[in-house]
Amino acid sequence: MLKIDNLHATVGDREILKGLSLDVRPGQVHAVMGPNGAGKSTLGNILAGRDGYEVTAGSIEFDGKPLLELEPEERAAAGVFLAFQYPVEIPGVNNTYFLRSALNAQRKARGEAELDSMQFLKLVREKLSVLHLDDKLLHRGVNEGFSGGEKKRNEIFQLAVLEPKLAILDETDSGLDIDALKHVADGVNALRSPERSFVVITHYQRLLDYIKPDVVHVLADGRIVETGGPELALELEQHGYAWIADRVAPGA
Ligand code: ADP
Ligand code: MG
Ligand code: MG
Questions:
Q1: 20 to 30 A Cα–Cα from 51, which one of 126, 133, 226, 230?
Q2: Which CATH number fits domain 2-248: 3.30.390.30, 3.30.950.10, 3.40.50.2300, 3.40.50.300?
């Protein structure tokens, strides 16, 4: 599904990713954890195709095709969902209208018929029910005045409607409360399927109390320094990231 091989990337002239490799198979949930400044969000931004990052070596394959050659919209149409690709806030643009445009743009790019408003409404109702959400957020402006928790709920709702093959979620270090984390976790759990993979980037061990990942990675100093099962997250919970420092700079 997603195969990252020996990825090196710079911001400005500083190397942030230093040989990162990651292999995500269909249906798997991978957690990428790590200390602040390790390069987690950089990884997410590169997958999203954000400007300002230069890949200097290595490759990323999605579904057997080179991801880095695709524009952000092409990545979305191919089935990659990147939460942060969707506008943070667009005041005055109705959330439902926006989402329908995004979905139809993707369907069009794939050569599929666009959904009319009745069909879209049916899809929306179905997803609201799967996620146990009410329709409060639908009629507001996109993320307009949303709380952190509401933004997260909306992100998961967008994910549900767009039905990607691969979803990459960066739960930034910006103080999400436990309710917001739970919404992310419930959403991921409800939307797991044998054909859909998730990469959940998080600084928080506690998110993984609610999402049971198949694989846990520790990203430190621009590389994956440790990979394991869910027990790795528990180890981090007990010992923090300090013991990882030894692997980045032995004896330092
Ligand atoms: P994490 O998400 O793991 O906390 P980031 O990927 O946000 O780490 O950042 C990794 C390093 O790259 C940090 O030292 C950060 O300051 C630097 N960095 C990331 N993005 C930029 C940018 N756009 N401009 C300058 N430095 C950046
Ligand atoms: Mg950070
Ligand atoms: Mg980050």
A1: 226
A2: 3.40.50.300
Percent of the chain with pLDDT over 90: 60
- Phi-psi region at 134: left, alpha or beta (left = phi > 0; alpha = psi -120 to 50): beta
Is residue 192 helix, strand or coil?
Answer: coil
Q: How confident is the model at residue 252 (pLDDT cuts 50, 70, 90)?
A: very low
Tell whether ligand 1 has an atom less than 6 A from the beta carbon of residue 41. yes
Ligand 1 centroid to Cα of residue 215, in Å, is 24
The CB of 40 under 6 Å from ligand 1? The reply is yes
Report pLDDT digits (tens) over 45-74.
999 888 899 999 999 999 999 999 999 889
Secondary structure element (H or E) that encloses residue 199, with its range: strand 197-202
